[in-house]
Design goal:
The protein has 7 helices and 8 strands. By secondary structure, it is an alpha/beta fold. It has 2 domains: 135 residues, P-loop containing nucleotide triphosphate hydrolases (Rossmann fold); 74 residues, no CATH class. The strands form 2 sheets. It has a 6-stranded mixed sheet with strand order 4-5-6-3-7-8, with helices on both faces. It is globular.
């Protein structure tokens, strides 16, 4: 059996007195692409947070709230993915007057996600989908082998969703994402973990699966 990159045993979590995860046991190996699916409130975001805490030093996190600095440009928000690679003075210099080599590197990432033409526009002036792609760009620009994402394509159309998910898979060896679009989850991951009421009720490979197989997760 491959060595587990993530390993939970009987993990539970509460929020405001309510149980949101109940006795979760889960192993995820390096190289797996995993989708967490289930109704809103099933515990997906909480499970992602617990998994991220196990590998925070080596994983890129893409939260549902995005966490963009809205007054700063797309360039600056994506560049933030590598702040820890440079000194404070170097980062400050790029805040004031971006260096050509950094602009070229960030532009290449923005081009992959279809937001190159917005590179120096404040993110607060962008559409929801453009903001989401900026956040994806920041996470991928970090260069981590592991990405943990909470609904990374919720604000973009089907075509853009495929571009984003393909870029995530091309850039990261291990991927764990929460998704509502079950068809895309099946297409772009190799394992589905279904949650209901804070428990894992399904854990299966996506090979041969279709969205109808997941309908029971959304009933009641």
């Amino acid at each position: 059996m491959p060595v587990a990159l993530f390993d939970l045993h009987e993990a539970s979590a509460r929020y405001e007195g309510r149980v949101v995860l109940n006795s979760i046991s889960l192993r995820i190996a390096e190289g797996e692409r995993v989708a967490l699916v289930g109704c809103s409130g099933a515990g997906k975001s909480t499970l992602l947070r617990i998994l991220y805490e196990q590998r925070a030093a080596e994983a890129a996190l893409l939260p549902q709230e995005l966490g963009l600095v809205r007054v700063l440009s797309v360039f600056h928000n994506i560049y933030m993915g590598r702040l820890n690679r440079h000194s404070a003075w170097y980062n400050l210099a790029n805040l004031i007057r971006p260096m050509a080599r950094e602009v070229d590197a960030v532009r290449a990432m923005a081009r992959r996600l279809g937001i190159e033409e917005k590179l120096f526009e404040p993110t607060g002036q962008l559409s929801g989908g453009q903001q989401q792609r900026t956040a994806v760009g920041r996470a991928l620009y970090q260069g981590s082998a592991v990405l943990i994402g909470d609904e990374p394509v919720s604000a973009v159309d089907d075509h853009q969703s495929r571009i984003v998910l393909q870029n995530i898979n091309d850039s990261c060896k291990t991927v764990i994402i929460a998704m509502h679009d079950t068809a895309l989850a099946i297409e772009y991951t190799d394992r589905i973990i279904g949650l209901r009421g804070g428990r894992i009720v399904m854990d299966q490979p996506t090979a041969g699966m279709n969205p109808d197989d997941l309908h029971d997760l959304y009933r009641g």
